[in-house]
Design a protein that fits this description.
The structure holds two protein chains of two kinds. Chain A is built from 19 helices and 13 strands. Chain A is α+β, with helices and mostly antiparallel strands. Chain A folds into two domains: 384 residues, no CATH class; 45 residues, no CATH class. In chain A, strands 7, 8, 9, 10, 11, 12 and 13 form a seven-stranded mixed sheet that branches. Chain A has a two-stranded antiparallel sheet with strand order 1-2. Chain A has a two-stranded antiparallel ribbon with strand order 3-4. The longest helix of chain A has 20 residues. Chain B has a single domain, classed as Nucleic acid-binding proteins (OB fold (Dihydrolipoamide Acetyltransferase, E2P), Beta Barrel), CATH 2.40.50.140. Chain B is elongated and about 65 Å long. Classes of the chains: A alpha+beta, B alpha+beta. Chain B: Keywords: Signal. Chain B: This is DUF5666 domain-containing protein.
């Protein structure tokens, strides 16, 4: 083929793609209709290398190197794959997708595991690599708006292996495009044991200013080569090395307000503090006592509220994280020059601790889900992780609590944002004493003297 | 006369008791329930309403819920919510229909 012919073909393809995009359609529809959908290899016709590249993302590995958390090995990777903390208490390793033991009451079993959200087929699982893993990527669960979720269920194949099904129909493939809110929420809204349990937010026009403007998750979490920018949530460790910030120049910039006094706040106050005034979801869980559900299986005892039904707590945060068996949360101070006052969703969970070492233990949910025997879950996890004397560890395990500060980065509001008197008043939203201010500073910070003249003038203008 | 007054007082007390503690839902009152879906009726992809029949975990009664919110309808359409799922539901009785105000699967990962 001559250079001219090649250039013409490339130009033609580009033109066709541009035309399709302009019409709101994903290009390549004719090809998919003609040849059917064959999994990632179909996508690779236009997006070569995508499947292999995807295997190196947090969405596939459920882990990454973590540089901002104390007490962990900087050379290791951490994430849902292997972390032990009390929102989940299990992880992909100890709580791998499997058929749980039959309920002694009903004789029924079911499939359960932390990695049910992993976008593979479970045979190629969290962190797997190679040709089989590339072929196992479920592109459509994130990119199709016509995915049939009856297909995405675990089942046993002829070898007795647990496989996660996928919808690879041509119908689903013809509805591909940029991920919608639904695509993301399929997994992210039900994390941690139920809808709105873990993160405590819903992304709807009623609950979030960005959603009300018609934005979708990936407008802020704009991925490049499937590397997904995230915020700096103290409890969301794994990351693709790219981060999202309100003050990105393409979004709100470093001077987002018309008012210079408000902009001055941005040096010490995170945007979320004034613009995310509510949170929700689970606020306490007990993994040592599981409740029987109507189907006679068991679930950890969980206390929860809807999105917007609880209020955040506030702390200085410099982006680094304190991490101990009883606490995961922000580090920072008024004086370090890097911290901002930031809102967090507070969560406390009860789980078992190693009597000898004081370390938090993890749990395989299979046995407790079947009959409520939580120590059996600790034993199974201890065996999986290769701990010495697992029987002794499980028998002697001591219940205890861990407190976690979750980032509070959604439920953004403009109209209901905090205003001057919410904080600058005695017993206001911010506890200045706890935040390290002196009595003299507090006296000044809680007086209307700060804003009286200005707001009086504004009130006059408004009315 | 005394007997008539006593009867009237008794009737008034009974009526008050029913008013205060009765479980019959009145219009505008939000009712909470957890139950398993036994049936979903939805008319195609463009449907703006659907009904789901839930078996109340506490009473074992079947309750027909009318669902009108787009998020839940979408979950019916793409089968993220299917028969057999356990649901946490809040509804109001409006014009004789149990209209859903919250319809969530209880399960998660």
């Amino acid at each position: 083929m001559s250079k001219k012919t090649t250039a013409a073909a490339v130009l033609g393809l580009a033109l066709a793609a541009t035309t399709a995009w302009a019409a709101g359609m994903h290009p390549g529809k004719e090809s998919i209709e003609k040849s059917g959908y064959k999994g990632p290899e179909t996508c690779e016709e236009c997006h070569p290398g995508s499947a292999k590249g995807f295997l190196d993302t947090v969405h596939w590995k459920h882990a990454s190197k973590v540089t901002n958390v104390e007490g962990i090995n900087a050379k290791e990777e951490y994430g849902m794959k292997n972390r032990i903390y009390v929102m989940c208490n299990g992880n992909d390793i100890v709580n791998n997708l499997k058929e749980i033991p039959k309920s002694p009451v009903t004789g029924k079993s079911k499939f359960s595991g932390c990695n049910t959200c992993h976008p593979g087929n479970h045979l190629s699982d969290v962190g797997s690599t190679g040709a089989a893993a590339e072929a196992a990527v479920d592109c459509l669960v994130c990119h199709s708006t016509d995915y049939d979720f009856r297909q995405r269920k675990p089942f046993k194949n002829e070898k007795g292996e647990v496989v996660m099904g996928q919808d690879r129909s041509t119908k689903a493939a013809l509805a591909i495009g940029k991920p919608t809110v639904k695509n993301c929420m399929v997994c992210h809204e039900a994390a941690g044991g139920g809808v709105i349990v873990k993160r405590g937010f819903s992304f709807t026009k009623d609950t979030d200013a960005h959603a009300a403007k018609g934005m979708v998750c990936v407008d802020c979490h704009k991925a490049k080569n499937h590397k997904m920018p995230t915020g700096h949530d103290p409890n969301n460790w794994a990351n693709d090395g790219v981060f999202v910030s309100c003050s990105d120049t393409s979004c709100h910039g470093v001077k987002p307000h018309k008012d210079a006094d408000l902009n001055r706040h941005c040096a010490k106050i995170a945007c979320q503090t004034c613009h995310i005034t509510r949170t929700g979801g689970a606020f306490a869980k007990d993994f040592t006592v599981w409740e029987q559900t109507p189907d006679k299986f068991y679930e950890p005892t969980t206390l929860k509220k809807e999105a917007n039904e609880t209020t955040p707590v506030y702390a200085w945060y410099n982006g680094t994280v304190k991490n101990t068996p009883h606490f995961i949360g922000p580090k920072g101070s008024k004086k370090d020059g890097k911290s901002k006052i930031t809102p967090f969703k507070i969560f406390q969970g009860k789980a078992y601790y190693n009597k000898q070492t004081g370390e938090l233990l993890s749990m395989d949910f299979a046995q407790p889900m079947s009959d409520g025997d939580t120590r059996a879950g600790v034993l199974s996890a201890a065996k999986t992780l290769g701990l010495k004397n697992p029987e002794k560890i499980a028998k002697e395990a001591v219940p205890g609590w861990q407190t976690i500060y979750f980032g509070s980065n959604h439920l953004v509001t403009k109209t209901k944002a905090l205003y001057c008197a919410n904080c600058h008043a005695p017993n206001g939203v911010l506890n200045f004493k706890d935040l390290g201010y002196s009595d003299k500073e507090i006296l000044k910070l809680t007086s209307p003297e700060l804003f009286m003249e200005k707001l009086a003038q504004k009130q006059k203008e408004d009315w | 006369m005394k007997k008539a007054v006593s009867v009237m007082v008794l009737v008034a007390v009974a009526a008050l008791t029913i008013f205060c503690f009765g479980s019959v839902a009145s219009a505008g009152e939000e009712i909470k329930m957890v139950g398993v879906i036994t049936k979903i009726d939805i008319a195609g992809k463009d449907a703006k309403t659907a009904t789901a029949t839930l078996k109340d975990n506490k009473t074992e009664q079947l309750v027909v819920i009318t669902v009108e919110d787009d998020l839940t309808l979408d979950k019916f359409k793409d089968h993220r919510i299917v028969e057999g799922d356990e649901i946490r539901c809040k509804y109001e009785v409006i014009d004789g229909k149990n209209v859903s105000k919250l319809f969530r699967k209880t399960a998660g990962c």
